[in-house]
Amino acid sequence: MTKMQAIKAEDLSRMEEAYRQNEKARVVRNALTNNDITRISSVFEAEEANPFLFSIDIKTMPATNQKKSGRCWIFSSLNVLREMIAKKYHIEKFELSQNFITFYDKLEKVNWFLEAALQEVDTPYSDETMRYLLETVTNDGGQWDMMVSVVKKYGLCPKTAMPETFQSSNTMGMMRLINGRLRKSVADS
Q1: How far apart are CA 64 and CA 44, in angstroms?
Q2: Quick one: pLDDT at residue 1?
Q3: Which positions ≥6 away from 94 have C-beta within 8 Å?
Q4: Residues 44-83, buried b or exposed e (16+ Cβ, 10 A)?
Q5: Which end of the chain is less enclosed by CB atoms within 10 A, N or C?
């Protein structure tokens, strides 16, 4: 096994010089300056050789759209549950409220953050735990076990009872505001 070594200034200079002399690298650099990397890096021949076809079609309800939010875990979980409910009760059009789950998920996450911050109230901001709490605060992310916990505690409701809103579908601004308020509450305590 080779021993790891730190990168030296000479190494960087040598790599930069080799990069600048490489014509292919110049073309790629110019292309990347004004274009989406995913489009530039796609391999047309690979797409042509692997068409997007399935040999089995499974009848499902239409996909739901999380729009500009990080709630894929809520949408995918509710899509699975929705299919089960629709099949059991012979419903053709039906959707569960993602906003309902989002509300209670945020409530639980905010409560967790405040409880954790209270436990660390005398901890200096430079402490690793306090730094982590204040940097992370809360977010949209989650997974199946979190979904199960929210559903067990608060239940489910149809989307007609609590539909999507602009804020639930575009969470960045709302999360910035919530996290700012939570950080301020810690700073004020």
Answers
A1: 29
A2: 59
A3: 61, 82, 85, 86, 158
A4: eeeeeeeeeeeeeeeeeeeebebeebebebbbebbbeebe
A5: N
Residue positions counted in the chain: 189
Q: Left if phi > 0, otherwise alpha if psi is -120 to 50, otherwise beta: which for 66?
A: alpha
Rounded distance, CA 146 to CA 130, Å? 23
| Residue-range domain boundaries for the chain | 9-49, 72-188
Taking CA atoms, 124 is separated from 6, 12, 131, 164, 167, in Å, by 33, 39, 9, 40, 34
How far apart CA 59 and CA 42 sit, in angstroms, is 31
Listed in sequence order, the residues at least 6 apart from 26 whose beta carbon sits closer than 8 Å to its beta carbon are: 20
Blockwise average pLDDT, block size 10, the chain, 189 residues: 82 92 90 85 82 80 90 95 94 94 96 93 90 93 96 97 94 94 91
Q: What is the pTM of this model?
A: 0.70
